[in-house]
Specification:
With 246 residues, this protein is an alpha/beta fold. Strands 2-1-3-4-7-8-9 form a seven-stranded parallel β-sheet, with helices on both faces. It has a two-stranded antiparallel ribbon with strand order 5-6. Strand 1, helix 1 and strand 2 form a beta-alpha-beta unit. It is globular and about 50 Å long. The model has no long low-confidence stretch (mean pLDDT 95).
Length: 246
């Protein structure tokens, strides 16, 4: 059994991982899916001061209060920013770090630093137009998301505090990162933000890189396929950068 702890994506929350609990439990794993401050069931706590550091602390608190050790930390999308900070601050508790179609920041980088300037400015415009200047309305879900999943997910997706995208990540540990894996979702949209990180994982030591035949939210659209891949990665059963899940 592995203990998985999810750092979820922007506009999302723990609820988005609902389909993963049964297959992960059947595979023998313990899956924790906490929600960040200001999103999901914690949306009533949203305010303009919430930044990346708050979300990192949210996940650190789960590690500490649940007394979790030997954790497989999984960061999805924006959650890659959060997971990188958590792994830096709680190195002794993390056995593996998995990025799922996620941002992989270096010290001093914000999420906005990892986006094209036009995309960054478009988000700021949306925040000013319909988010009181401090909240970014949700991005559209991938076009291949089934209608039933859209009907379930879209009403639950909440605006993202803009400071979480603007805050630079500050790494404080001098320890090397834990073993890292990158899962690239092959059914990418026209603005493919994540191939750059898959390419980085293929070129740097200390990484394994995998691909999955799914769009950006496989925990919603392909939970069984994602479970099988996570199970194999956690067990060390696959280790080739060209490996793919179909």
């Amino acid at each position: 059994m592995a203990i998985f702890l999810v750092a979820h994506g922007a506009w999302s929350a723990g609820w988005a991982w609902r389909k993963m609990h049964a297959p992960m439990r059947a595979a023998g794993h313990d899956l924790h899916t906490p929600t960040y401050t200001g999103l999901g069931e914690r949306g009533h706590l949203a305010n303009a001061s919430i930044d990346l550091a708050v979300h990192i602390q949210d996940v650190l608190a789960v590690l500490e209060h649940e007394d979790l050790h030997d954790v497989v930390l999984l960061g999805h999308s924006y959650g890659g920013m959060v997971a990188t900070g958590v792994a830096d601050r709680a190195h002794a508790r993390i056995a593996q770090l998995i990025y799922l179609d996620a941002f992989v920041p270096r010290d001093g980088q914000s999420l906005f630093d990892l986006q094209p300037a036009a995309m960054r400015e478009a988000m700021r415009v949306r925040a000013r137009a319909s988010g009181d200047g401090w909240r970014i309305p949700p991005n559209p879900m991938p076009p291949d998301t089934p209608a039933a999943d859209r009907a379930w997910a879209e009403p639950r997706r909440l605006p993202q505090p803009i400071q979480t995208f603007e805050t630079p990540l500050r790494l404080t540990s001098h320890m090397p990162p834990p073993p890292r894996s990158y899962i690239y979702c092959r059914r990418c949209g026209p603005d493919d933000l994540f191939r750059q990180f898959a390419d980085r994982a293929r070129s740097e030591a200390g990484w394994r890189c995998f691909e999955i035949d799914a769009s950006h939210n496989p925990h919603i659209t392909a939970p069984e396929v994602l479970t099988a891949l996570l199970d194999a990665i956690a067990a060390g059963a696959i280790g080739d950068a060209s490996a793919a899940a179909t």
